[in-house]
Amino acid sequence: MRREALQMTSPLFPTVRMRRLRLTEATRRLVRETRLHRHDLVLPLFVCEGEGVRREISSMPGVFQTSVDELVADAERARASGVLGVILFGIPASKDPVGSGAYDDAGIVHRAIRALKARLPELIVMADVCLCEYTSHGHCGVVEGERISNDPTLDLLARSSVSFARAGADVIAPSDMMDGRVKAIRGALDAEGFDQVPIMAYSAKFASAFYGPFREAAESAPQFGDRRSYQMDPANRREALREVLLDVAEGADMVMVKPALAYMDLIRDVRDAVDLPVAAYNVSGEYSMVKAAARNGWIDERRVVLETLTGMKRAGADIILTYHAVDAARWLAEDEAVL
To answer: What pLDDT is recorded for position 288?
Structure first.
């Protein structure tokens, strides 16, 4: 087949020279097929109790648990760099079996939302909706024995979503992977007058080994078992599309594939299957691998990050959640200023 292809194309040379459109940076930009922009990026942030708190996460260099005041400062820097949105994860002062901090109107994420909207009203503030950060057992739903019970969890997720919307969240982002959660959340939001608040569903979220550093950052490691009874099997492609289409039918306004790097085929599948905006989460393990290799001098961090994010965009992602957001936005701005 390769010989036949060469025989078919070789007579076109020297008339056809593919390198003509690669010779200069200006020409390469002119014909570029995929364009990564600062506005495509969303920055995840971790908020904790206290004041003036800034604790670096050991497995995620450059990422911090911060108190509300420090988080607002980080969000201001992100917005100044051209990043349009942030997504919030909370580390509450205490946890309990039902994750009540997730739907406490005075909870840590609720206070962060109010502070951000007061200081940066134009910033898109997304609230991650899940119980794992708030439960003493670290699972994403109500535990009965050692079983994660789906239906009792739905009410708590809906309560959390309404409380985040009441605090001022612009987008509700359920990440729990319980069946029926989008329908429950949409119904609860609409019933409470938040019919204009969109839902960005973590629709195809896999039980991935790439989440390890996040569990340190959010202090959300499960105390027993694992999450494979509700997060997806990494081997399943058709099931991912079923999950996405169910979320769309239940009222999702945006859908997400998580993680991103090892799942670019699914990002493309989802992009081809739906007309909704598609998000991809460039998760903690992906970030940490790049940081570790860069610190050892094995890779050019800037080039690898921009190439990776461009790959996610090329695969079909409209929105990319990434811990690289501020650096990537700055690098993109510098590149734009060259010509």
So the answer is: 98
Q: Which class does domain 35-338 fall in?
A: alpha beta
Please give the DSSP secondary-structure letter assigned to residue 234: T
CA dihedral 87, 131, 68, 200 (to 10 degrees): 20
Say whether 258 is catalytic: yes
Helix (H) or strand (E) holding 194: none
245 within 8 A of 273, measured Cβ to Cβ: yes
Domain boundaries, given as residue ranges, for the chain: 35-338
Q: Which of 69, 77, 162 is nearest to 116 (CA)?
A: 69
What is the rounded distance in angstroms from the CA atom of residue 221 to the CA atom of residue 209?
12
Dist. CA 86–CA 327, nearest whole Å: 14
Tokens of 246: 């169910």
Catalytic residue among 95, 183, 258, 313: 258
Q: Is the pTM of this model over 0.85?
A: yes
Q: Give me the average pLDDT of each 10-residue run along the chain (339 residues).
A: 56 89 94 96 97 96 97 98 97 90 94 98 97 88 87 96 98 96 98 98 96 85 78 96 98 98 98 98 98 98 98 98 98 85
Choose, from 95, 117, 205, 291, the residue flagged as catalytic.
205
What's residue 32's pLDDT?
95
Q: Which of 301, 303, 279, 302 is nearest to 292 (CA)?
A: 301
**Is 183 among the catalytic positions?**
no
Residues in the chain: 339
62 vs 310: CA distance, rounded Å: 22
Cβ pair 65, 314 in contact under 8 A: no
CB distance 172 to 129 below 8 Å: yes
Judge contact between 183 and 166, C-beta under 8 A. Answer: no
Give yes or no for a contact between 245 and 271, defined as CB atoms under 8 angstroms apart. no
Looking at residue 161, its pLDDT comes to: 98
Contact between 165 and 189 (Cβ < 8 Å)? yes
